[in-house]
Amino acid sequence: MLGFGDELELEDYSLASPPNLDDQLLTALVEASGSTPRAKLGWTDVSFFSSRGVPAANFGPGDPQLAHTAGEWVGRDQLELVAASLDKLIST
């Protein structure tokens, strides 16, 4: 607990994450999904992992513009596409 006169300054930032599309696993994920990679708005753990040399990707169903809002929803077709993509990825 802060007392009178105490100050706390928290600085939190991360650099943008490079796409790492030359990584074998991420290349295979793109191929398995049949989707075109695109930039993600906002910060995610991908930046944390990339800064430590671990290739990572945001991949999943739903509209990222609606993430964590009252309007967020996911359709069955999107869930099936993700499931099929991951199945294809781990089967190769």
Would you give an account of this structure?
This protein is mainly alpha-helical and 92 residues long. Helix content is 35%, strand content 0%. It has helices spanning 24-33, 45-50, 76-91. Helix 1 crosses helix 3 (76-91). The protein is extended and about 60 Å long. The mean pLDDT is 86.
Query: What is the makeup of the main sheet?
Result: none
Strand content: under 5%
What is the count of helical runs?
Answer: 3
Q: H/E order of the elements?
A: HHH
Number of strands: 0
Oligomer: single chain
N-end to C-end Cα span? 53 Å
How does the helix and strand content classify structurally? mainly alpha
Blueprint of the fold:
Layout: H1 24-33, H2 45-50, H3 76-91
Helix pairs in contact: 1-3
What's this, in brief?
The protein is an all-alpha fold. It is 35% helix and 0% strand.
Structural features:
92 residues, mainly alpha, extended
